[in-house]
Fold each of these.
Amino acid sequence: MERIKEVLRRKGVPASTPRICIYDYLLAQKTHPSAEMVYSALHPQMPALSRTTVYNTLRMLCDIGLVKQIPICEGDMRFDADISEHGHFWCRKCGRVIDIDAPHIATNQSHHEIGNVDEIQVVLIGTCHNCK
Ligand SMILES: [Zn+2]
Ligand SMILES: [Zn+2]
């Protein structure tokens, strides 16, 4: 908890209880939860927590670079506190999002002709072994 407070303070944001709890939850989870999943998991212990606070906090954590958004099909945005370079496998059937080694995609000249590349997202979509 102290470490999280320190990290938030260093990013210049006040370490409010929802921020600490949501970031702590994301760090502990390897499931890449959606905003709704974060809300459902934390709401029982924090009855005052609203969906809006969860959405706004997740957006803020992304803005300050502590959390990454993973764009998954069908508008189901997932969140990851592991900001190291890696890709994801998304199971269409059960919705699991599994970390994978990021296939190396070099940003070549043609990308730069289109615009600046800030981030590379690799999402493989399929059916996991449990669902086959
Ligand atoms: Zn599956
Ligand atoms: Zn991940």
Amino acid sequence: MKIAVVGGMIVDGTGSPWFYSNIYISDGIISKIGHEWEERPEVVIDASGQVVCPGFIDMHGHSDYSLLVNPFAESKVRQGVTTEVIGQCGFSLAPINDWSAEYLEKTMPDHIKGHVSVDWRTMDEYLNKLEERRTSINVVPFIGHGTVRMNVLRFENREPTEEELEEMKGYVREGMEAGAFGLSTGLIYPPSSYAKTEEIVELCKVVAEYKGMYASHIRGESDTLIEAVKEAIEIGEKSGCRVEISHFKASGKRNWGKTKVTCRIVEEARERGVEVAFDFYPYTASSTGLDVLLPQWALEGGVEAMLRRLRDPEARREIRSYMEDRVRRGKYADKEVYDIIRITDFAPNRGIQGKTVAEISKEWGLDPYETVFELLLRSEGRVGIIIHGMNEEDLLRVMRHPLSCVGSDSSCYAKYGPLSETRPHPRAYGTFARVLGYYSRERKILTMEEAIRKMTSAPASRLRLFRRGLIREGFHADLVVFDPRKVIDRATYLDPHQYAEGINYVLVNGEIVVEKGEHTKARPGKVLRFSK
Ligand SMILES: [Zn+2]
């Protein structure tokens, strides 16, 4: 297919000011930037008055399941995302063994159940399956450390023996051989959280042999934030991996302002030659599972063991006293914690989605702790939540920092079908458009060119995607054409299934996936496989 994009203001992804030119695309590649083309285009896109820039790279995504359910990546591609990094926060769907496959089948989110059957084991088989599904966007796979640990140690809270560590290394090696870009951890989520620093260093040494990346949801984003950032850097330094700290933030009122310190720590590490950087999403609320409120010991052994403990009066009392203590110690100091937690996913009763724990507690006539336990028990442990716990000053500091890039921390959703059943964090639909429309155009926190750099060339060079992320002749034609006066996010906490506005055209590998703001149902995405 030969396409000409004419008359637009080109923002090339480097951060340089926009300039006028035409872009000519042939067979998926930007073949010329200029004003004359010897070839005859089959399609001409009139981009006058609009910005033409590289497709956005979502540095931190979770579409491991959802691209198998719905390959169109609606919520993402409609905000200009053309490439998504998956396998994040320690959780990937491969490589797995029989035990893990069965565990995944049992614990997958309700809206995914019945739409995906876990019939792969190796990373290669999983990536082939994604390829066969033919997705609308490109995919950059990571290996989840939690997944690797689950294969070998299930949910046991202990160190691996030497043989077990070797077995884990084997899974990492297999994943890297198949083309994963690196290893991710989720150090607040079992079983990833059961690993000591040294275990991760050892596994990252394997990743370093392949020149891969270590991406981490660090061990604490509130009271233990600073130690957790240092641990991520230490893992990079000792293993030789480059490091990406995921969704960089400071949670809980008494930790607000700590990003001043953590940004400095990252800068100092770079001065020593450690390649470390971070990503952010442009919201002050985070999204996770309700079980994060429970102590780590209560989660040992997996979901069924947790539910057993909640049914056992004595264990339940102990869990409760841990939670009461946390509230007393002011973990979320300013407000009653249950006022700032909103339920987003609760399959047994979708009607309560959107309400806070405090509201549900009133409705049910239970105190907030009992409400949390009931929610977990009734849903067999699967309750999605949003916590309003961050400060905008920290967010803006991270956003402005030259080392940050943009990551949605979301999977793909759609306004129809199974992916419309839960109520996601609005970042799923809004992240990229919000940075461009709200934080850049309206608030002037970043220039448009700098915002686009953080969505394109910055993640591309971090991931070593050297033929994407810039508008250059010979590069893959992943492109976005948007209206700089209109681009904006529409998704809100209460009404998140709203596509972004102002994104008029999106091209992935030279094919039109969004045309005049609508999905064409084209699926030209590729599974990108890393090679050093
Ligand atoms: Zn995370």
